[in-house]
């Protein structure tokens, strides 16, 4: 069994509890509350149907006893690679009943990622779909089993299990109700690790982020307050539960509120619009591509119930915020956060338009931000620098990598986010790019986010990412990687003319254009810029190679 060593101290527990940030609760306690108080309220809706809170509680209890019968106990790891199906929520809650550690895995991950994660965590149980989006997960796990010595059981949802696997329904076969001397389930200790979720890797190396129920709920409650959410809300979640966005603001948020969750397993803006109309969805959250697609979906559905859309996880072109607000008719709340700490900033419902259109919001209750220069000194309001954060929702360390954890903090306990940004005089944050995305051309910093925002307004551009390319004289130059709109093409001269028309300084202009069909993305919708840099570098080498 893996050991989940953390950097959590008794002092941090006392302080966060005394200040009311940590309530010493866990998500499964909310299931008990709503199953008692509003048993007939719809808890979840997915493509296979819907269930009430009373039905969900009964299913979770049965699956928890089923997992226990298969060796799952406090501290053991259960990995789940399901799409946004209700079974995923059942697994999360059932594991919590046992005090087990859940490891959500995005459905797009394949053998390489699973081999690393399952062996590193020593997962004893894995739950997978039969097939999803045309991919045979059963065959993948069957081929991997010889390399996964710690995996004892594989359960298959909505598909035929392979050899030595069992259907998901087998977890409900344990006749626990009538068993004499049946013990209650232990539940989760709010200060113990209950989730290990691997970062999706914009830099190429995933790290296992460890959270406890206290760190998770410390960022859910402040968002509820900021956006005035309640049990009357209906939550659409299209971001995978295996990413912290889906885990926190699909799974956790729905259970904490006692609201209704509507799950979409494959993103499709028309399907999302249909669900918003049919289920009277009031709240959703997703990365920039989700906001973009829903904003420009043909207006054939009634979206008037939608009250709030939080867009976070990737830079948001400011023109998109304006269009989304006008077309969707709801509050658009740009925000910023990480797997390590959840949604740290977002705009409130009453924030001035200038803040909504130009910032990523201000910190929610309990979270603090600093912007520092290269020497670690705070910069004045409006100055750009490295973004640091601290607060009660900070994770409790990287799994089996205490060296990574130590390197991620300053001596004063501030977490190094790897992002760059500005804080204005009112405390609102504007992300300007990743530290590793910063392009330094002949000693001058090029503000990547600013250039991307301007280029995004070009009528021929569907998506844009600006990255650095090596240059022998200047160190780096900027390259614009562009996904053109269907049927369009583009030249570097057109880009330059567009930027000139907006009166930007010439040193900020991209000096190369790469047209791509699509961007390499993480499951959370972030552009993997390190892959784009590799692509540009490879093409530069190929162009310079002598021809035969």
Q: What's the short story on this structure?
A:
This protein is α/β, with parallel strands linked by helices and 548 residues long. Helices cover 32% and strands 24% of the residues.
How would you characterize the overall build of this protein?
The protein has 548 residues and is of the alpha/beta class. The protein folds into three domains: 26-189, Rossmann fold; 212-437, Rossmann fold (3-Layer(aba) Sandwich); 444-544, GMP Synthetase, Chain A, domain 3 (2-Layer Sandwich), CATH 3.30.300.30. Helix content is 32%, strand content 24%. The chain has 16 helices and 27 strands. Helix 2 crosses helix 3, helix 2 packs parallel to helix 8 and helix 7 (213-227) packs across helix 8. The model has no long low-confidence stretch (mean pLDDT 92).
Strand order of the biggest β-sheet: 2-1-13-12-14-15-16-17-18
Strands, total number: 27
CATH topology of the largest domain: Rossmann fold
Distance between the termini: 58 Å
Q: What is the makeup of the main sheet?
A: 9 strands, mixed
User: Ranges with pLDDT <50 over ≥5 residues?
Assistant: none
Domains, number? 3
Radius of gyration: 24 Å
User: What is the structural class?
Assistant: alpha/beta
Quaternary structure type: single chain
Give the full name of the CATH homologous superfamily of the largest domain: ANL, N-terminal domain
What top-tier CATH class of the largest domain fits best?
Alpha Beta
Task: Kindly list the characteristics that best describe this protein.
Rossmann fold, five-stranded parallel β-sheet, 16 helices, nine-stranded mixed β-sheet, 548 residues, alpha/beta
């Amino acid at each position: 069994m893996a050991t989940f060593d953390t950097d959590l101290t008794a002092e941090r527990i006392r302080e966060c509890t005394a200040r009311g940030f940590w309530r010493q609760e866990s998500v499964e306690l909310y299931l008990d509350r709503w199953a008692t108080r509003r048993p007939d309220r719809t808890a979840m809706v997915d493509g296979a149907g819907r269930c009430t809170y009373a039905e969900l509680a009964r299913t979770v209890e049965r699956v928890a006893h089923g997992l226990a019968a298969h060796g799952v106990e406090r501290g053991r790891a259960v990995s789940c690679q399901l799409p946004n199906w209700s079974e995923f929520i059942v697994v999360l809650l059932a594991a919590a009943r046992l005090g087990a550690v859940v490891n959500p895995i995005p459905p797009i991950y394949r053998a390489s990622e699973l081999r690393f994660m399952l062996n590193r965590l020593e997962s004893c149980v894995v739950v997978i779909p039969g097939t999803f989006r045309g991919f045979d997960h059963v065959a993948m796990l069957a081929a991997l089993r010889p390399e996964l010595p710690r995996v004892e059981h594989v359960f298959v949802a909505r598909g035929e299990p392979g050899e030595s696997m069992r259907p998901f329904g087998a977890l409900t076969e344990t006749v626990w109700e009538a068993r004499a001397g049946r013990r209650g389930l232990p539940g989760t200790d709010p200060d113990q690790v209950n989730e290990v979720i691997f970062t999706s890797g914009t830099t190429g190396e995933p790290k296992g982020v460890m959270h406890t129920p206290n760190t998770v709920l410390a960022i859910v409650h402040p968002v509820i307050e900021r956006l005035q959410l309640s049990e009357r809300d209906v939550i659409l979640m299209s971001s995978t539960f295996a990413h912290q966005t889906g885990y926190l603001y699909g799974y956790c948020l729905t259970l904490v509120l006692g609201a209704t969750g509507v799950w979409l397993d494959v993103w499709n803006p028309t399907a999302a619009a249909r669900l918003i109309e049919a289920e009277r969805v009031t709240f959703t959250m997703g990365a920039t591509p989700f906001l973009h697609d829903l904003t420009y979906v043909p207006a054939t559905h009634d979206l008037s119930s939608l009250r709030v859309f939080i867009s976070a996880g990737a830079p948001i072109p400011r023109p998109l915020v304006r269009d989304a607000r006008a077309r969707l008719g709801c509050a658009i709340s740009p925000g910023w956060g990480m797997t390590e700490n959840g949604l740290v900033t977002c705009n409130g419902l009453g924030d001035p338009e200038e803040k909504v259109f130009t910032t990523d919001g201000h910190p929610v209750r309990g979270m603090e931000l600093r912007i520092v220069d290269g020497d670690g000194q705070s910069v004045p309001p409006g100055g750009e620098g490295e973004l640091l954060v601290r607060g009660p929702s900070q994770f409790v360390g990287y799994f089996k990598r205490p060296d990574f954890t130590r390197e991620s903090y300053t001596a004063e306990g501030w977490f190094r986010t790897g992002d760059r940004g500005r804080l204005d005089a009112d405390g609102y944050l504007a992300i300007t790019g990743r530290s590793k995305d910063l392009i330094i051309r002949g000693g001058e910093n090029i503000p990547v986010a600013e250039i991307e925002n301007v280029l995004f307004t070009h009528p021929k551009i569907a998506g844009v990412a600006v990255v650095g390319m090596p240059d022998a004289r200047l160190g780096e130059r900027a390259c614009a990687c562009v996904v053109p709109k269907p049927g369009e093409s583009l030249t570097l001269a057109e880009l330059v003319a567009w930027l000139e028309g907006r009166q930007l300084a010439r040193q900020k202009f991209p000096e190369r254009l790469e047209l791509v069909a699509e961007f390499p993305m993480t499951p959370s919708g972030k552009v993997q810029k390190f892959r784009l840099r590799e692509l540009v570098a490879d093409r530069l080498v190929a162009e310079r190679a002598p021809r035969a």
